[in-house]
What does this fold into?
Amino acid sequence: MKISFKYISYFFLFILGISMTLTSCTDDLNVTPKDDDEFLSDTFFQDPDSYKQVLAKLYAGLYVGGNDGDGQADISGLSGDFSSYLRLLFVTQELPTDEAVIAWSDGTLPTLNMQTWSPVNEFLYGTYSRASYHISVANEFLRQTTDEKLAERGVDSNLKAEIATFRAEARFLRAYSYVNLMDLFGNVPITTEADPVGFYYPVQKTRAEVFAFVESELKDLDNSLANARTNEYGRVDKVAAKFLLAQIYLNSKVYTGTERNNEVATLCSEIINSGYTFADVPYAYLFSADNNTNGAQSEFIFPIISDGNAIRATGGGMSFIIHAAIGGSIDAATLGMDGGWYGTRARKEFVALFPDATATGDKRGIFHTDGQALDITNLSTFTDGYGVKKYTNKKSDGSAAQRADIPDTDFPVFRLSDAYLMYAEAVVRGATTGNIATAVGYVNQIRGRAEATTISSADLTLDFILAERGRELYWECHRRTDLIRFGKFTGGSKIWQWKGGLMDGVATDSYRDLMPIPSKTIQANPTLKQNPGY
It folds into this structure.
């Protein structure tokens, strides 16, 4: 078995249908759908194992789309594959940036390539709905695991103690979804387990209010999450909460108007010294099929687990990320896959961040150039734009994964090298709780693994950090947030091909730093106000 978190049995339960049915209204009406009444019930929870099964469902929700294994959507307007949380995060965080484009013309998907989306974009609706769905499941789990509920069911003290940790993890996963909503959409409602279940309109909160809620939750979780590296692989601990807190502090100027760089540097120092270790392995090992065992896992603070046998997500999660990047003359078998979907490539402005496109001057630049044009003349032509072979379904020794249609490769949501880069950025932005020499050392450690040239303190500028974050973290769902923080996402200070809808790129309006509240969401909750510009 790939991991100890018993994902095979839990995903089997997921496939059998214990997951909620998300209707078109549940993202903004705090409703517990019928399927939840069936499985999140006193009868269901008579089985002591059920608590961990529902916790596994929460983790599963980050990867799997659909609700009962039949391939049908649980989000109106999207196929089950397209409703995968991780897939939607990739679509919204990568396609609008200089890092990636996709060739497909499904619905309004092409508008994400060009920053020309509108409130009727079904992929934005899917992202909003998926995050809201995840919050709804967490809330119901918390309602069903109160001290009163556990006492009624006669739960023994040992299981109660374990459930207390489960509850902390559920709160973390809820906070993670609120951060995604806050980051993408700004002003969104907040619902918790304290809210009634039924038809009502949750009140829209300001971005700053959502920030304050998440900040409070993450600080409090330091008291209840498992200690660093004591939890099962794939489950979060105190360090994950510190990491997410550092992330929102790094973006605090965008979210609240106030910089929090001192807190970023302090938290990153704590994360770096927490027991997680920088993986002393080739960069490519971090994105291989055995990245849970080949040494890469030492720096994975929060991975989304992939398992070809246990998690039959044929089009979501890592199956999408790897399949969609294969096409043209890329040999799918060399990446451990059964074929390619001719979708995602890199834009030439991103390729230019590397000294060359052959990974000789920087091992992180894992591009495929044979038969691929650097310029993207036609977005729909897969051979326009260099291919990206960062993720592979082969093990680090070149041997095969469990199967070729669904990968084993885990997705690193949080990893230690990002804490190094956050620390460096906070120091350059003026944090007095860190120092430049330490920051340079962290960056050079990252660059050393990539066999790139070392830098000096004079090289450590904000422009360098943005570029280095791209080189280290590309296609890990950070780029849109990073570009916005640096003032480079919209406007004309950074142009890339097809930005604004033209091949050569053009400045875009700053209101697009926020995605629109989806039209269907406002129809479901007419008290919501649309973001300016839309």
About this structure: The chain has three domains: 1-192+513-534, 225-305+410-486, 311-393.
